[in-house]
Amino acid sequence: MVHPNYGSNSLVIFSREKHSSIFGDITLSPNPKNTESLGWFYEFFITPMADISKIATKNITNFHGQAESYQNMAVSLASKKKNKIK
Q1: I need a surface site. Which of 16, 21, 27, 54 has the fewest CB within 10 A?
Q2: pTM greater than 0.70 (yes/no)
Q3: Measured between alpha carbons, how far is 58 from 50 in angstroms, rounded to an integer?
Q4: Which tens digits make up the pLDDT trace of 24-48?
């Protein structure tokens, strides 16, 4: 992927490493010659990254609620078992 006004040393993505068909790592150019190419990259990906952040926040919140529920059930079961032993 290069900036639409491609010039020498304006490559935005330096390297890619796929971990699977869905996930991978992208390394940005370590020495971009102009800020316009980097700005273009962030403008292009800002909306998808914002969506990913919203989904991740929602997942973390949901997991936290489930973890609290399981913890409350475990405490409840432990206290019932303790009362049976007495």
Answers
A1: 21
A2: no
A3: 12
A4: 887 776 666 667 766 777 787 888 8
**Euclidean distance between CA atoms 55 and 51, whole angstroms:** 6
Question: Reduced to 3 states, what is the DSSP secondary structure of residue 75?
Answer: helix
Q: Residue 68: helix, strand or coil by DSSP?
A: helix
Provide the 10 A C-beta neighbour count for residue 41.
19
Contact yes or no for 37/10 (Cβ under 8 A):
yes
Residue 33 tokens, joined: 């010659």
How many angstroms separate the CA atoms of 54 and 48, rounded? 10
Q: How many Cβ atoms sit within 10 Å of the Cβ of residue 73?
A: 10
Strand bridging mode 24-28 / 13-18: antiparallel
Q: What is the 3-state secondary structure (H, E, C) of 6-57?
A: CCCCCECEEEEEECCCCCEEEEECCCCCCHHHHHHHHHHHHHHHHHHHHHHH
